[in-house]
Each structure stands twice: as C-alpha cells, then as structure tokens.
Design brief:
This protein is α/β, with parallel strands linked by helices and about 650 residues long. Helix 1 (about 60-75) packs across helix 7 (about 255-270) and helix 3 packs across helix 4 (about 150-165).
Length: about 650
C-alpha cells in the first residue's frame, strides 16, 4: 500500500528511494519514498509528517525503482505488493537501521572446487562473447547440453567481474539448489558470496540485504526473491535453468523472475545470461527473432558423453505395480548396484499412494478445503493435501459405509523407497522429494552423501532433476515419463520434454558411461521422441507450429483474470458479469479475444471457489493499458467476499 506524508518544512525534499521512518497506526515503521510533490489528499484535514530519514547510503537505487515501476504497470499489481516481494520484511521494522546480525549459513560442502578446470573451446567462446558486451545490455541464451559446464561459464564471468570491482547476481529455481550452488561459488570467491531465499530467517535475509547494499557481498545466489537485491555496481545477471516454472510466482504479485531479470539488466545496462539445456519456448522464440543472442555448449565439459536412452513401451512391457519398474529397468538397476555404481529413479509423485480407496463402496477421502483426493503418507501415517497442507489420520473404517477394507491405491516415491529397501536390503538408498526437502539440513545431507558415494540409489521427484552433478551416477530410470501429458495445459508437452531431458542428463557426466531407461505409454509422442533423440531443436520446431496454430504464447499473450471466494454462486455470478463487461470493453478490438468464464481446473482450493476469464491477444501493450485503466472499476463491481487477481503471462492457464 502507499501512504501520503508531509515533509517537515526545515527538511530538504528527500529523493525517491530514500528510506524513512514514518508514523503508522499507533506505532512507527520504515517506508520508502516512492513519489514527491504529490497533491494534498482530498478529504483529509491533516497529513502526518515523516519522523526520520535513514542514512542516504541506504537508499534504493534509481534503477531498482524503475524496475519496480515497470513491474507495477506490466503485471497490473499494487506497488506495495512489489515492495513486499523484493524487500526483506525486517527492513520495515524500526530495528532495521541498526543492521541486526544473524549467524550466516554455511555453504554446502563437497560441491565446490577451488581450482578451476580447463575450459572447452565452446566455453571460451561463450565467455569472450559475453565479456565483450559487459558494459551494455544484451540478453544471452546459453544453451548447453546437460553436463556441458554452464556453471563454470558463470564462475569465470564472475571472476572477471570481481577483478574489476563489480558484482553478479545468480538466480536458481529451487531453494534446494541454493546451498550447493553457493558452495561452488564460495569455493572460488570465499566470503564475497551470499545467498538469499524464503527458507532463510528474517534476520538472515536482512543481513544479506545489508551485505549487498554495503558492497560487502559481491556474488549473490538466490531464488526469484533475490532478483532485486541492491548489489553495488552490478555487472551481470544469470538466470540458471531459465525454463523452470518455479521462476513464476503464483500468489499475490504474479511475476516471472526470468522476464523481470531481463528488465533489470536493461535498466542496469548489463548483460543477462539465461542458461538451460532445455530452453523455454518463449526464450527460443526470442532468440529466433534476434532479441536474444544464442551461445551453444554442444559437448560435455568432462570426459562424459550424453547417456544412451532406452525406451520401454509400458503397453508391451508392463511395470511392477509396486515399484513401477519394468523388467528391463529392474535388470539394469541390479547390474548397476552389483558394479558398485549409483542409480537414480525419478517419479514426480510424492507420498506412499495417491489416495485411499474403500473396497466396500468406492469412497475416496477428499480434502475438505480443496477439490482433490488426500495423498496417503505412511511415515508418519497420515492423509495430506499437497495444496493446502490439510492433514488427518488415516481412517480405520470407511466414513461412508463402515467397511474396514481401506486400501492404498497407486504408487508414490515413499512406497518405492519402502519396497526397494526390502528387496535390496544391502542397498544404501534415500528419497528426495518435497516431504524430505522441507528440512534444509536433511536435503543437504542426502545430496552430499550421494555426491560422496555414500548412497547407492536415490529416489525422487523433480528435485533430483535440476542442476545436480554426481560422478558415479550411471543409471537413471524415468518411471512414467508421460504423466504430465494428462494435464489440461498447453505447456504439458514442453514440461514433459524438459523434465525427461533434465533428469536423463544426470547420468554419465564423468568417466563412467551413463544409461537412461525411459518408461512410457506414449512412445510416439513428439515430446518423447525428441527427448529420446536428445534434440531440443526438433521439439521446438514441432511445438512452435502447434502454438502458432492454436494462438498460444509466444505468438499471443495471455492474461487470466482470476476470481475467488468462499461462496460458489457469488464467484460464478461475478465471473459472468466480468466476462460480459470485458466483451463490451474490447468489442472494437478484434485482436483481443475474451474466453470464459470457466471454472478453474481445481474449482475449490484452500477453501475458496475459483473461476476465471482469459484474455488472449496479439497486441499486448494496448490491451494492458485498457485493463490498467478499467481494473479499479471491475474491482468496485465485485460482490462482497469475491476477490479479483490478475495473472499476466500465466504458467498454468486451466
């Protein structure tokens, strides 16, 4: 939110970006001067004065203020939400100016090398091309196969920048990847490296913010919330795994960190490097149009080569219902374990079983807050909603018919872990999914142990697919490759291709050759065949045709207007009224299409019913300006208890 205050007559007018202590309610808080010279608000007899200006060296830089301003307009969001997202909560407390100290987090050990390895020719070319434009804005797509040494390119770029007294921002998609990435950078640059993400305490995030603002920290590694840290003399932004959907925030201020990173780089006048083995369709299209410059790393940086991928058609070779492993994969896993090498099994499904089923009447326990079955977890025993975290004990008898025959149905990572541990009792195995990753220390222990060869088998969800480098990992089993294709989303094929390619790329990255077993019911789907051929260009060309014919991004832009509330009829009526108003508003704009209203794919989520209206256009900026002007009217028309959220360039649209 924004508030208006008076500047005491004896003060000079503070510059925008200055931190100030202001009266708020019965107390005081720290705020940011967003605008000066504003008119006296109508209807107010008195405006409270500022209490204190904090030191000028703590002010936000003009470049950051322009990024914030762009985000407010582009994403049609209140300025307070932008500031809440990118500034540490402790900054707005009266103690913030004192610079509270917190115990710094130790980087993950075992993932960094102080001595830089030799570069490949492609790495040298990429580094030289980026450094040649280090004083100007230029987006680069660093497209390198898995294991091609993208991280080493980032490290060498940072080394050059630090020698010139400049700083760098490295974005990673997941909190789980932050410690290991910090470890790699800290091994080269020591105490000049810091981290920032939502898993840190308030005091730790505030300390990192001060470290960036003061110039003490020169390299910051963090998730999307680190994007606007006030680094001194910023010289480079890197968005690693730029294709990852985790860069899109789905609540409140719905921004995409990859796109906003490009905006910040433009304001700073510096290069931005988007790195990926499987670039997003949007980034590939921007490269094809000449907006981004393409740099390729076609070979692995180590002695390893890309793994061989063997396709298993599950229609012809059924999998074990308990392990979801085909005979082919089982045989290869046993051979790898016998050789003392490591294996990874990938299944993007948490828990012991997707749901419990009453054998007497067919009843399935559902979440009372969301329109979805509760996932059964065995250790600790419970039924959990993975959307709202609702939790309850498994029933002894069916609530509908009283039967005692209640059976777990399907298989999740927890069940695979249990079954394989019983079948191979001598095997050292572990599981890594969000249930485990909720504890940072345990996540680091598992990754460090696997990297050190203290584990033989790792079972996990998409957390195991991103950015990990294990020297003795020679077999990857993808248990059900095409599960994402069943989702009602035009990006489903892209997600399948990316996750299969990424997880397959964990195998054979060093001296030992790697192998991948890809299990699927749809072996002829173009996403599967492209992943099998390890050919992102072929997938891009096929997907590009589909997107253009269907008028989906990147050829048309999409905006979702999402309505939610606790009373279903009110939300439905509000969505119908909104859709009618939008049809009238854009009636003369043939380039704008209004679709809906329609129920969200999960109509009820966290106790609220959800409807949405989609806008699709080939001329986004004109539509955005009209929406920006009319949004206050639409919001004023909403019935009590119904809220409206705008999602520009949504990741999930159904």
């Amino acid at each position: 939110m924004t508030f208006t205050y008076a500047v005491p007559e004896e003060w000079e007018m503070p510059a925008c970006g200055r931190l100030a202590r202001v009266p708020l309610g019965k107390g005081a808080s720290v705020g940011i001067v967003a605008e000066t010279g504003v008119k006296f608000p109508e209807g107010l007899k008195e405006v409270k004065p500022l209490l204190e200006l904090l030191p000028e060296d703590l002010s936000l830089k003009p470049t950051l203020l322009r990024v914030f301003e762009w985000a407010v307009g582009h994403y049609l969001t209140p300025p307070g939400e932008v500031l809440r997202t990118f500034l540490p909560p402790g900054l707005f407390k009266s103690t913030a100016a004192k610079g509270e100290r917190a115990r710094p987090r130790a980087p993950m050990i075992g993932f960094g090398e102080a001595v830089a390895p030799s570069l490949t020719e492609a790495q040298r070319v990429a580094i030289a091309d980026i450094l040649e434009l280090r004083e100007s804005f230029q987006p680069f797509l660093l497209q390198g196969i898995t294991g091609s040494g993208k991280t080493e390119v980032y490290l060498r770029l940072c080394e050059e920048l630090l020698q010139r007294g400049r700083s760098a921002l490295i974005l990673v998609p997941e909190i789980a990847l932050t410690p290991q990435t910090v470890g790699r950078f800290a091994a080269r640059f020591g105490d000049a490296v810091g981290s920032y993400h939502s898993g840190m305490t308030e005091a730790q995030r505030l300390q990192t913010w001060w470290g960036a603002q003061s110039g003490r920290l020169k390299v910051l590694v963090g998730t999307r919330s680190a994007l606007c840290l006030p680094l001194v003399d910023l010289g480079l932004i890197v968005v690693d795994e730029e294709h990852d959907s985790s860069y899109k925030q789905e609540e409140r201020f719905r921004y995409h960190a990859r796109d906003l990173a490009v905006v910040r780089a433009k304001e700073e006048g510096i290069p931005v490097v988007l790195g990926s083995a499987t670039p997003s369709i949007e980034t590939m299209e921007n490269t094809a149009r000449g907006k981004y410059r393409l740099l390729k790393l076609p070979l692995r940086a180590t002695a390893g080569t890309l793994p061989k991928i063997q396709l298993v058609d599950l229609k012809l070779e059924p999998a074990d219902p308990e392990t979801m492993m085909s005979p082919t994969l089982t045989e290869k896993l046993e051979a790898v374990l016998a050789r003392g090498e490591q294996a990874l099994l990938f299944l993007n499904r948490r828990g012991f079983a997707p749901y419990l089923l009453c054998r007497g009447c067919g009843e399935v326990p559902n979440c009372p807050n969301c329109e979805i079955a509760l996932t059964f977890h065995k250790r600790p025993a419970g039924m959990v909603c993975h959307y709202c975290e609702f939790h309850q004990k498994p029933p002894d008898v069916c609530a509908s018919c009283g039967a005692i025959e209640i059976q777990p149905m399907g298989t999740g990572t927890e069940k695979i872990e249990e079954v394989l541990q019983k079948r191979y009792p001598q095997t050292r195995l572990a599981r890594l999914d969000r249930d485990v990753a909720s504890g940072r220390q345990r996540t680091e222990e598992i990754l460090s142990s696997f990297a050190a060869g203290e584990l033989d088998l790792l079972i996990g969800t998409q957390l195991v697919a991103k950015g990990h480098d294990f020297k003795r990992l020679t077999l990857v089993g993808i248990l059900l490759a095409d599960s994402t294709l069943n989702q009602p989303d035009f990006r489903a094929a892209e997600r399948l291709f990316q996750i299969v390619t990424q997880v397959a790329g964990r195998a054979g990255r060093h001296d030992l050759p790697g192998e991948v077993v890809l299990q699927t019911f749809r072996p002829t789907h173009y996403a599967v065949t492209s992943a099998l051929a390890q050919d992102p260009e072929a997938f891009f060309q096929h997907e590009r045709v589909y997107r253009e014919e269907a008028s989906y991004p990147p050829f048309h832009r999409v905006v979702l207007l999402k309505l939610s509330g606790t009373q279903s009829p009110r939300v439905e009526q509000a969505s119908e009224k909104l859709a009618e108003d939008l049809v009238v508003l854009f009636g003369r704009h043939s380039e704008v299409r209004v679709l809906g209203p329609a129920k969200a794919s999960m109509e009820k989520l966290r106790g609220k019913y959800r409807w949405q209206v989609m806008l699709r256009t080939s001329k986004f900026e004109g539509m955005r300006r009209v929406l920006e002007e009319k949004l206050p009217y639409f919001e004023a028309q909403l019935p009590a208890g119904v809220t409206l959220h705008v999602d520009v360039d949504p990741i999930g649209v159904f």
